[in-house]
Amino acid sequence: MKAAVVQMNSGADLAANLAQAQALLERAAGVGAALAALPENFAFMGAKERDKLAHAEADGAGTIQDWLAATAARLKLWIVAGSLPIGAPDGRVHAACCVYDADGRRAARYDKIHLFDVDVGNGTSESGSTLVERYRESNSIAPGAVTPVAVDTPLGRLGLSICYDLRFPELFRALVSEGCTLFCVPAAFTAKTGAVHWHTLLKARAVENLAYLLAPGQCGTHPGGRGTYGHSLILDPWGETLAELFDDTPGVALAELDPEHLQAVRARFPALSHRRL
User: Which of 83, 128, 136, 227 could staple 191 via S-S, CB 3.0–4.6 A?
Assistant: First the structure.
C-alpha cells in the first residue's frame, strides 16, 4: 500500500494553513495513498512560541480536530496529523499528534515527550558577536507522558513521535519493542540543524530498528523569520530513500510500503533478535 508525506509552509493564518493541507491531502489521496502524514505545527506557526496558546483546543473537539476527522472521512484516507495544540491542565498546551482512520475516527493520540529547549548557533555577525536562534518550547508546551504510542494501520503498526524526539533513540527502540514496523516523525526542523543532522538521524532510526519511516516536514520561512529545512522523505528498513522532496516548497512525496520486504530484511539481518540489553 502507498503512504504519503506532506510538506508544508505553515504560517499564522489557521484557515490558510488548513486550506493548504487540504489541497495536499487531496493530492495524496488522488495518487493512491492509503495514509498521509502532515508535518509538525501544520495548522499554525506563529512568530512567537506562545502564539499557539490562542488556538488551544479541548481534547476531542475543536476547529482543527473537527476538520481532520471530516477530511479523513471524506477522502477515505488515514491521516497522521503532525502536531496540534491541545490544552494542558497547567495552561500550556500539549503538542499532540493525532491519527485518524479512513472513517474519520481518532485512532491514536501521542503528546510530544521531548521539548526543544535549545540554542542553535547561526554564525557570527559583522561585529564578531555570535548569532543564536533560541527555542524554548517548554514556555508554551507541556511534555507528554513518557509512554510510547503505537497504532495499527493498513500499512503496519505505526509508532508515533514528533521532531525533537528523533534525537532520542530509546523512544524508537521502545516502539519497535511494541511491534512497530513503521515510524512517523512529523517535524519543523530548523534550517541549520536540518542541513547537518536531518538525514543522518532519520536513517539511523530506520536502520537500527529495521523499520519504514515517514518524515513530513515544514519548509521555507515562517512568521518571525524562522527557517525550516523541508526535505520530507520516506525511508525503507535498510535506510534507502524511497521518496524525497528537494524543493523548498509545499508538496507531496509518495512511496509504496511492502510488508514482505520488511520481513525479508528482518529475517536475513536479525539484529533485533540479537539485542542483549
Answer: 227
At residue 121, the pLDDT reads 74
Residue from 40, 52, 97, 180 carrying the catalytic annotation: 40
Collapsing DSSP states into helix, strand and coil, what is residue 91? coil
Residue-wise pLDDT for 231-258, tens only, equals: 999 999 999 999 999 988 999 999 999 9
Contact 215, 205 (CB under 8 A): no
Decide if 52 is catalytic: no
| 273 contact partners, CB below 8 Å, separation of at least 6 | none
From the list 98, 163, 180, 219, the catalytic residue is 163
- To the nearest whole percent, how much of the chain has pLDDT over 70? 96
- The pTM (predicted TM-score) of the whole model is 0.95
Grid cell in block for residue 177: 519493542
Task: List pLDDT tens digits, range 50-92.
Answer: 999 999 999 999 999 999 999 999 999 999 999 999 999 999 9
- Tell me, yes or no, if 48 is annotated catalytic: no
Nearest-angstrom CA–CA distance, 59 and 195: 35
* Mean pLDDT, rounded, for 156-169: 98
- Catalytic annotation present for 163: yes
Q: Provide CATH code, domain 2-114+140-271.
A: 3.60.110.10
Q: Would you mind telling me the total number of residues written for the chain in this entry?
A: 277
> Residue 129: is its pLDDT beyond 90?
no
Catalytic one of 52, 97, 98, 112? 112
